Amino acid sequence: MSSILITGGAGFIGSHTCLQLLEEGHYLYIIDSFVNSSPQIVERIERLFSKGHEKFEEQFNLIGGDIRDKILIENIFKSSIENKHAIEAVIHFAGLKSVEESTLNPSLYWDVNVGGSINLVKIMEKYNCRTIVFSSSATVYSTDNKCPLSEDSQIKPSNTYGQTKVTVENLLMSLYNIKGEDWKIINLRYFNPIGAHPSGLIGENPRGKINNLFPYLNQVASGQKKELRIFGNDWPTKDGTCIRDYVHIMDLAEAHCLALKYLLQKGKSDFLSLNICTGKGTSILELMRHFESVNSCKIPYVFVDRRPGDIAISFASNDLTSSTLKWSPKRNISDMCIDGWRWQQLNPNGFEK
Ligand code: NAD
Ligand code: WQD
Question: Could you tell me which CATH number the domain at 3-346 has?
Answer without folding.
Answer: 3.40.50.720
